[in-house]
Amino acid sequence: MNEWTRLPNLSIDKDFDGATFAPIYTTKVTVSGGMASHGRASGRARSADGVLDLNLRMPTELGGDGKGTNPEQLFAAGFAACFHGALSLAARQAALDPAAISVEATVAFGRDPEDGGYLLHVDLEVKWPDIDPVVAAPLVKKADSLCPYTKMALRGTPTSIRLAS
Predict the structure, then answer these.
(1) Which of 5, 58, 102, 123 is 20 to 30 A from 75 (CA-CA)?
(2) Are 57 and 67 in contact (CB under 8 A)?
(3) What is 70-155's CATH number?
(4) What is the pLDDT of residues 25-62, one digit of tens each?
(5) Which of helix, strand or coil describes residue 118?
(6) Domain spans of the chain?
């Protein structure tokens, strides 16, 4: 049985006009290497609050045992959930029921032809049965402008990397 969850108090309006980034929520996850001293191959991902605590494993397609999740699955879940939330918010603002919406994220890991390193490609597929595409299309576009994952994918994300002392 599903419990009712209170919806977040977010809007689709451009209601922030600050000069700098204004965090609303911050989380921290630590990945450490397991037996192989390799976070991707045998690591553990754990959030600071302990709610997320899972084993990471290489997928069989990359030579791993596939007995755990991997970064691409986690990224796909986060991207799909975020876009789903943005689209649901836009639907509710348009007085539409978002209950039937689902978002499928396909994340491909591969070689970057520019530098020989690695790159991700993301495809999102929105499924919204019984909605007129003419009605849905502007809401999907609105969700695209609201979703921080799509902004990250299109514009990049400010990132800092530092070596702790």
Answers:
(1) 5
(2) yes
(3) 3.30.300.20
(4) 899 999 998 878 787 888 999 999 999 999 999 999 98
(5) strand
(6) 16-69, 70-155
